[in-house]
Automatic annotation (TrEMBL):
PANTHER family: BLR5612 PROTEIN, SLL1039 PROTEIN
Top-rank taxon, per record: Bacteria
Originating species: Rugamonas aquatica
Gene3D superfamilies xref list: 3.30.1490.270, 3.40.50.11290
SUPFAM superfamilies: Glutathione synthetase ATP-binding domain-like
Membrane spanning residue stretches: none
Pfam families, alphabetized: CP_ATPgrasp_2
Record-given protein name: Circularly permuted type 2 ATP-grasp protein
Residue stretches making up the Circularly permuted ATP-grasp type domain: 77-452
Length: 476
């Protein structure tokens, strides 16, 4: 009996003849058992070759080789039945609504602080808090137009939110390309399974961005703004611009004149109304933030403050995806929506609190400890997978800066059968659905399933050796 929830089988024996296959996987399992091993191997090689040819890669910062790597793709899908997805979707919409209301509140009336629910210093001392945004009216009061919420499954199969990515969440291009690849390799599977489509995401995203254009703009010009080709997610920036049929621009392609943002084109300047920006706040405007930034547009903040351009996501959104704010999201849902949270947080110890720090220090070997501003699986301790020396080294970091960390129990993340060197074996996974907020909140039925390819590993990030799978939401 496996000590984690297996997505495909009820007893964890994913590739075992006696395994009891969960109902929503039966059709796929029957098909898989009929496939000769060499057929599957050939298809996997074809997928690798195609991804390499298309250039679906990511750069790893600090990688000595400085090379681009292929994100490993697994051909066994992660399948979610319709009823489970409906519950997830309800919880995600609720959560993102509350997060948008929270960000609006902290830059306006600060009711949640006045009510004593979140300590003021948690917000005002947050590295992502932008005092420049105080009192600024943003289009439709939306701050996180695109949210990537990381969901894990643990225990007997309960869903938990691991973190909220509201700044510049990435990964949606892999969701779309993984689906395209599966349809190309195994068209017969899509003929016999009722799998909800995801390929309309770029259309949904464009509609969403157009819906939040500045007042009075009926036919808005939307652009995708990238830091440039050396960014780790550049493939995605180019992919989304191309799929939406809009221009991919860098800071140097834009300029501010007459309190308006313009794009340089071969036909002369063209007004820009909505910027889907894929670079961090600090680099957006050298006049307002980092003066050494060559990636941004001088004067952009003043146009934004005047309501003459929409930035997605809004400046200052990062305060709500910080790990020190994460423990308060259930309170936000109750405060702003007067509802009970549909999706649970992972229980979290805030090391800035004396009693939480004491508990964390006493239980380091069994906890996951994360930097509150950390990302990408860096700056964290996975207690059960760490040596005594690593734990002691981390203990010193924690004692030196307790307010910079949170701790959580090590969840036995659910696993999905995955092709590995010696056949099929369970590997731990998470799920990042993408929630779009505009005039309405919408999402495609699916998300990016990331898989920890190393045996026993719980770290699914691509920068740490993780791979991806296609995510099937069944329509029945």
């Amino acid at each position: 009996m496996a000590n984690f929830f297996n997505e495909m089988t009820a007893d964890g024996l994913a590739h075992h003849a006696s395994a009891e296959v969960r109902e929503h996987y039966r059709e796929f399992c029957g098909w898989l058992q009929r496939q000769p091993a060499e057929t599957i191997e050939r298809k996997r090689a074809e997928a690798d070759l195609t991804f390499r040819r298309v250039g679906i890669t990511f750069a790893v910062y600090g990688d000595d080789a400085g090379t681009e790597r292929l994100i490993p793709f697994d051909t066994i899908p992660r399948i979610i039945p319709a009823a489970e997805w409906k519950q997830l979707q309800t919880g995600l919409v609720q959560r993102v609504r509350a997060l948008n209301m929270f960000i609006h509140d902290i830059y306006h009336d600060q009711n949640i602080i006045k009510a004593g629910i979140i300590p003021a210093e948690q917000i005002y001392r947050n590295a992502q808090y932008r005092p420049e945004m105080q009192g600024i009216k943003v289009a439709s009061d939306i701050y996180a137009h695109i949210a990537g919420v990381d969901i894990v499954r643990a225990g007997q199969g309960e869903f938990y939110v691991l973190e909220d990515n509201l700044r510049v969440p990435s990964g949606v291009s892999y969701m779309l390309e993984d689906r395209k690849m599966m349809m190309r390799l195994f068209p017969e599977l899509f003929a016999r399974n009722k799998i909800a489509p995801v390929d309309h995401y770029p259309d949904l995203l464009l509609d969403n961005l157009r819906s939040v254009a500045p007042m009075g703009i009926n036919d808005p010009t939307v652009v995708v703004m990238t830091p440039g080709m050396y960014n780790s997610a550049y493939f995605e920036h180019a992919f989304l611009a191309q799929q939406m049929g809009v221009e991919l621009v860098e800071g140097k392609d834009l300029f501010v004149s007459d309190n308006t943002v313009f794009m340089r084109t071969t036909r002369g300047p063209k007004r820009v109304d909505v910027i889907y920006r894929r670079l961090d706040d600090d680099f957006l405007d050298p006049l307002a933030f980092r003066p050494d930034s060559s990636l941004g547009v001088p004067g952009l903040l003043s146009v934004y403050r005047a309501g003459r351009v929409t930035l997605a996501n809004a400046i200052g959104t990062g305060v709500a995806d910080d790990k020190s704010i994460y423990p308060f999201v259930p309170d936000m849902i109750k405060f702003y929506l007067s509802e009970e949270p549909v999706l649970n947080n992972v229980p979290t110890y805030q090391c800035r609190k004396q009693e939480d720090l004491a508990y964390t220090l006493a239980h380091l070997p069994e906890l996951v400890v994360k930097e509150v501003h950390g990302a990408g699986g860096y700056g964290m301790l996975v207690g059960p997978a760490s040596s005594k020396q690593q734990i002691e080294d981390f203990r010193q970091r924690l004692l030196a800066r307790p307010h910079g960390y949170i701790a959580q129990p090590t969840l036995a993340l659910s696993a999905c059968p995955t092709y590995v060197e010696n056949g099929i074996a369970p590997r731990h996974i998470d799920l990042r659905p993408f929630v779009l907020s505009g005039k309405t909140i919408s999402m495609v039925p699916g998300g990016l399933t990331r898989v920890a390819l190393q045996e026993g590993s719980l770290v699914v990030n691509s920068s740490q050796g993780g791979g991806t799978k296609d995510t099937w939401i069944l329509e029945r």
